[in-house]
């Protein structure tokens, strides 16, 4: 197995040296004060990354999917009505989870490539006079299509409708990479994982609950044990978990938050935008389109790139792995075979991004697409040269 | 934080150098064939460690508790009747989980320190003519009391009663350290985690399902998504997971199985017995009793040691951490304050065990117990000298 | 400190994951048989990499410079005459070392950028009827100029002259990356270090002695202790060193040799040629010249690239580090300010090389050179696409 | 290979987790300012550990032996007269090195087990009216015999004699573990390595030169290149080395100094004394003697323990390795077979020390010596209990 080249999948990301070492920890007693010295700062760090003053942060040995299950099972009861748009594979899977847990989902079918339709949400919420809808789901960044949505607009829709539903946001591929404002947007549950913006291995579900969401846990009657936030809260009060925590990953999360906050969240977001702009410049130079239908929904963590009609975009991914040892992402669901994805989140420099762009070019040329070698690279170089960070040190 | 001394908690264990390195992996594409080269051998290795030819092995980014939830939610339906003995904190918690998931548990209260009452199980199962009991829970090794139970006897009870209930075994602190026979004992679901006999960090729930248990998943209607074994099986068929796997830990698990199988399972078990016998010799020399009420239930992975009436056993644990930087386990639940625990599972040599014994002696003497310094050490030395392994190399 | 980008200095190289882990070793007893299990295979591996059946391999905790000192002090005596060409900084420094140790060097001044003048060597050796010349120095690859020399031709010069002088070869930046034939070329002492073709950190001087060189150690009277090969040989016979060895690095060297030999030396060399050809294609596309004056002396491990008259080539190196976080090599000695160097040895993929080429382009454009962005990248891409390795796995 | 047990050799020591990670560094450009950020603080840290304000600190990719060679070759000339006592293997080897480099050594033969005879030094120096003696060698801690010497007394001898000879001190197994006062004792060259008190792998020779020693380098004419301090000083002025430095080890050295200085040197020394006292209590309980002939020369870093007449002490070392996987040190030179050594320097806790003592007991009992199991352990426990550190945290 060669580990020479960076990965360009939309998570897990390349892991910074410092975080690999933070995770690679000898065993400590996870019921000792030592553990508390890792746990509490990690939770506090996540809270700051969420831009929240009071969110209750819970961290499970699990993944983002487990985070979704935490959101649903702690706050809702069988038969509860949910409002959700489906505009990609991850929003689709969250809807599927609701249905498995006997929730009643009103689905707003949305074109894959578009953002969440906040106006439709407003109409539906306004019409729901009896407030049957208990929660609104919003996928901040659709990893499958490279589309970001306007969560502030969803909040405005709720407010315009005067609707008390909880707002659940999937921030798995946005939090810690793109601007996310838990308090300002009135988010009730935010869900993410360790392996995206936090630049760690997969293995942690990270969730933030608002006071309102915590209140809902008192009535939410869906069965749960592993993902029960009350057990977790009780454990935290004793520097402990209700079961054995993933101590090394938590230590990594603590260090990751320190790195992000030291760099400054706005700098982190600007860095992601910068890298993404270079990739988008390359896509333009290739004469290709993004799956995302307009610039306002372009994701800064992943670009899904449409290939010409009749071409199987998945071949690029297979070819890149086989011939060049580079990992891109395939298209999923409705856009399978139609797009390939370049992940550009987490720990990535312009120099690394250029190697991914150069590889994509070689693959497309190898597979017969009419791509001029060096064209995308030149466009990205031009962008990166002209938009250098104040200091590369910030991008550590 | 000092990491100088070994830990003597009953899991997570000390992690062997080789496994720490195996887990500390750069990011790879978890949807690529590379990942299959880790996943499939790891599952096959676990199957061998379970002593099973055909068990379906599922590995979740979770913990043993998540493994329990996997067992229950995939095979059972609300209102199903369960038979379970309560003889320690972990059997207690499994019963509690059943109740949260709306299962109807018939509890056999058993003295903490005794093993599972297979005879009572047989009576109850025989009386259950209509086969309302859908599953029997059995905690192979009660980590709280240092008590191992006779799973073969539970199987015999089921067979004697001619009862078709599923047999679920909590092997969290026994599997890969003590003899476990999935096929021979007719186990239907075995549950463990990465952080005990497999000598890794916490973060994986590891379960084995029999064909009969897999059949039960077709009717089990408890809600589940994260722990759904069908999603998992579908993923495995494509070298993948239904969500992002904990690749490094899986790589570690694969290497752990190789280490265990290279050493030979019977050698692994003999090594655990040997280390445990030394600890028990020390306990005898101190004039103290184990919580486990008879030699046939002595656990080879953890010893819970009763301290004299009126003495708070938890003080030993606190004092050891504060003064000597050594971690022992406290008593839990009914035996809180009455016992302290020495974990002796996983990667531990006699030399390390002696340092734990010596530390316990110093702590007890410091706290005023009438313990002769060196007495327990001498008893353990005597045992270890006379029962050397054929080769220390086996104990790597 | 960011470690995101590959380095493009001509050593130390990027270190493969596997070798970093091999070097990061806990302490073992360096006087035990365990140590022998590392030492002897490492020496045997180096011998194979040298393409020698019988060379005595010595490994010192030192660097290539220490290897040179080992060669000289063990075989020569004060006043001995040495023949050496000076065609770059490293040959210059070896000559300087001879003079410090009171050797009498006949220097053949050679243009920086040219290879060793085997014909001049032959003339001088032929003229040396009384065989006053005791050793001939030959720098196989001048790291400063990116020039490789024809060692077989030097051997032919010695043979044509019927001259018994020892042949000492500096293979620091060639061995394990470019074809090197200790036995076939009649090399008497070969010198290298751990941080180039062996892809490790600096810290080991690695030398091979022929039987003839070993014979010379009996009369060589230059003072030496640390670098004494007899002490070393005596130690090796007892699985030991005359002082404390660098065990982790030796373990890494052993693993490095396994990697190289598993890949196959000819494949290793072909891989280096391939990466180098891509870099040279880029240089051509930029309209620049190499310092190396003709294709037969192009080095496959480092390219020294001439920049236009009046431009300070060192600015590229400084700018790349400051703005892009990428390390190239500066020009040294006579070519300081006139060239910058791209190291392309050791563990490097085409994808990584492209990122270095792209960075160099950005720097040159930033600094006002007339370089078309993407031009060098496109030329290299074209080469790499058409000259894929049979398997990327070989390039691990 | 098992790495479970601590090592009890007198260096290399057990390496703290934090230092292993500091050394395991990716490649950086060793000619960049980044490198200076490691190099200069490391040198400054060493200076403080030496308790010197102005010593010039040089760090070579080498070992303590290379440090000795640095001391001699930079300051002396062929034929110079040296005064040295021989009271163990390491002082013997330093004398041997002097002789190889054509220095004229006046040897004061001293019983192995005794400290340096400062009074004899004074007599000889006083008698040397013409000041032919250019340097006095003093081994601060004889690792072979576990004997520390009084360097202040040697300084007094020089001063009493009014003699201008340089004072060279071998502090390989004392510096950073036992009190060492470069300035106060008027040391001219102090020599140590990375693998003892600094708790790192072997691979660095660390030397401090006084202003007087630096002055002597102007006339010292012994041939040298690799160990030349002028080349080194010139390199340092440019954030560089005259060759490729061992960057990771230097980074480790920098972190090691921080750890030592954070703990406080006096605390570090007290910790070593404490661990050593426990070992000595055990030796007393066993009824055995130290090689060191009186308490004032007991070393706090290593104890050489005499075994009864007719018993081969080396068997203990072999047996411990084979049966228990524990490394002790053998006797060397005159005391080969007569002593075995327990190293107790660097990163070691009382808990670890007890495991070494317990192992030694088992070995001696196994080999037929009349040793009561647990007796040494009890004596050490008693000492450690009563002499706890203020905080274990200091012993990280």
UniProtKB/TrEMBL annotation, chains A, B, C, D:
InterPro entries: Aminotrans_V_dom (IPR000192), Aminotrans_V_PyrdxlP_BS (IPR020578), AspGlyoxATase (IPR054863), PyrdxlP-dep_Trfase (IPR015424), PyrdxlP-dep_Trfase_major (IPR015421), PyrdxlP-dep_Trfase_small (IPR015422), SP_NH2Trfase/AEP_transaminase (IPR024169). Pfam families: Aminotran_5 (PF00266). This is Aminotransferase class V-fold PLP-dependent enzyme. Belongs to the class-V pyridoxal-phosphate-dependent aminotransferase family. NCBIfam families: AspGlyoxATaseBhcA (NF045640). Its cofactor is pyridoxal 5'-phosphate. The modification N6-(pyridoxal phosphate)lysine is found at residue 196. The keyword 4Fe-4S does not apply. Gene3D superfamilies: Aspartate Aminotransferase, domain 1, Type I PLP-dependent aspartate aminotransferase-like (Major domain). GO terms for biological process: glycine biosynthetic process, by transamination of glyoxylate. Keywords: Aminotransferase, Pyridoxal phosphate, Transferase.
